[in-house]
Design a protein that fits this description.
InterPro entries: Integrase_cat-core (IPR001584), RNaseH-like_sf (IPR012337), RNaseH_sf (IPR036397). GO terms for molecular function: nucleic acid binding. This is Integrase catalytic domain-containing protein. One of its GO terms (biological process) is DNA integration. The structure is a single chain. The chain is mainly α. It has a domain of about 50 residues. Helices cover about 50% and strands about 5% of the residues. It has a two-stranded parallel sheet with strand order 1-2. The termini are far apart.
């Protein structure tokens, strides 16, 4: 079925194969029938491997969350059933589910900028709780988890970041 799915997807895209497809290490993607197909078609496979240029950990994390969701059915009765389930799941995942990697915010609130206001309200609430009951915090003023300034698929090493910052500082501003 996976082989047919890939072939159908390419046909539906006017015969144009993608440069890469996400491939986890599950039984389907490692089966003899499917594992050689992308290579035969000249398609790279992305896997969850750090420091690999075609890795996609965001997709991998989302797939894992989807597959291990308690509401995920063992199988779908039809493509329509799958579309309905996935539509509801991804709406929840992006607008309600709080993600630890982005300071317990939703992707939607980070994307639309409202996370900054939410972060400020959280900080004010924690500060008020600290002032009212400092003994609960062992003398340490609490703060909400920070929002990431940048999000990386393959974060460059600190040395590389320093080199890039130094190089950009030495590059004359030509306008």
């Amino acid at each position: 079925m996976a082989k047919e799915f890939i072939e159908h997807a390419i046909a539906a895209n006017d015969g144009i194969a993608p440069e890469a497809i996400h491939a986890d290490r599950g039984t389907v993607m490692t089966s003899t029938t499917v594992s050689g197909l992308p290579a035969l078609l000249g398609i790279d496979q992305s896997h969850s491997r750090p420091r690999v240029s075609n890795d996609n950990p965001y997709s991998e994390a989302q797939f894992k969350t989807l597959k291990y969701c308690p509401a995920f059915p063992g199988e779908f009765g039809s493509i329509e059933d799958a579309n309905v389930f996935c539509g509801q799941f991804f709406r929840y995942y992006n607008t309600e589910h709080r993600h630890s990697g982005i300071g317990m915010h939703t992707p939607a609130s980070v994307r639309d900028g409202s996370a900054v206001e939410i972060q400020a309200r959280r900080a004010a609430t924690l500060n008020a709780a600290f002032l009212a009951y400092p003994e609960r915090f062992r003398g340490r003023r609490p703060s909400p988890p920070p929002l990431p300034a940048r999000v990386w698929i393959n974060k460059p090493s600190t040395d590389l970041e320093d080199d890039e910052a130094e190089a950009s500082a030495q590059t004359p501003n030509v306008a």
